[in-house]
Amino acid sequence: MIVVNTESVNGYDIVELKGMVQGNTVRAKHMGRDIAASFKNMVGGELKGYTELLTESRREALTRMLQQAQELGANAVVNVRFTTSAITAGAAEMMAYGTAVVVTPKLPQ
Amino acid sequence: MDQLIALVISAVVIVVGLIAGKATEKRHLASLSQREAELAHMWVTTLRQPHGVSPAPHTPALACGEAVIASDAFKSWATGLRNIFGGEAKNFGRLYSRARREATLRMLEDARRQGFDAVCNVRHISTDIGGNAERPAKKGMPMATCIAFGTAYKRA
Question: For B2-153, CATH number?
Fold first, then answer.
């Protein structure tokens, strides 16, 4: 599956539109991570637990979006966007959405 | 007496924050500059379509990177003061710029891992993990979050 956030896939022609697909997830880290984060907030530095949280959320949201695209019979998703919202402390919602399409490689000139 | 002890503890926390925070920031900035120099050959643009694509056929792919950087006790306290008088909170500006640079670097490293040397249509988004927007009265944990993503391709 090809995933890009440009409006078309370079080197490919879009031959069929399959419609909008999306995937979302809300993830939280266990309390230990939240306590560690509050200590880190004293001395500064990267909150690795929360960075992981974002990475996992992004992967999960993308996977769910791709599943939808696959069910529609698409082989690419173009113009992918991410959006996030705050739900509660220590949790984040992440949503990925894009347009499922069928692409074919451009013939060499 | 109890109030005096509480005051002393807060002062110690702020001083520890000042010293440790400065050291962490300095180390992080040095690491950022070094990695940015290593990845200087890669193209990063916000153009909506790839520019100067390699003629060799290849399939572009999504590249992503994220970073969450915590504030320290001194920065949070100083920004609290700034909130009283208004004006630019340079401390938090620097904090966000570190998160953005870190996320952009991770996006570039992701692109390089997949064998690309250019990223176009780069976007930055942010989120509120600490719940600071949800309960501003409780003054949760100030942190800078950034997610950078774009379409990676091979340049000519």
Answer: 3.30.110.70
The residue type found at B102 is E
CB-CB under 8 Å, B24 with A82: no
Query: How many angstroms from the chain centroid is the CA of residue A80?
Result: 8
* DSSP-derived pairing of the beta strands B118-125 and B43-44: parallel
With CB atoms and an 8 Å threshold, state whether A85 touches B71.
no
- Asked whether the beta carbons of A19 and A106 are under 8 A apart, the reply is no
- What is the 8-class DSSP label of residue A37? H
Using CB atoms, pick whichever of A6, A53, A92 lies closest to residue B120.
A6
| Cβ-contact A45, B28 below 8 angstroms | yes
ipTM value? 0.90
pTM of the entire predicted model:
0.90
CA B77 to chain centre: 20
Distance of CA B1 to the CA centre of its chain: 41
Domains of chain A: 2-105 (3.30.110.70)
Sorted by where each begins, the domain ranges of chain B are 2-153
A 12-71 near B (Cβ less than 8 A): 12, 37-38, 40-48, 50-51, 53-55, 58, 62
Q: Is the dihedral of CA B147, A85, A92, B86 positive or negative?
A: positive
| Span A47-104, pLDDT tens digits | 998 899 899 999 999 999 999 999 999 999 999 999 988 777 767 789 999 999 999 9
Tokens of A22: 């999306």
Residue A107's Cβ-side half-sphere holds a number of Cα atoms within 13 Å equal to 1
Are A86 and B141 in contact (CB < 8 Å)?
Answer: no
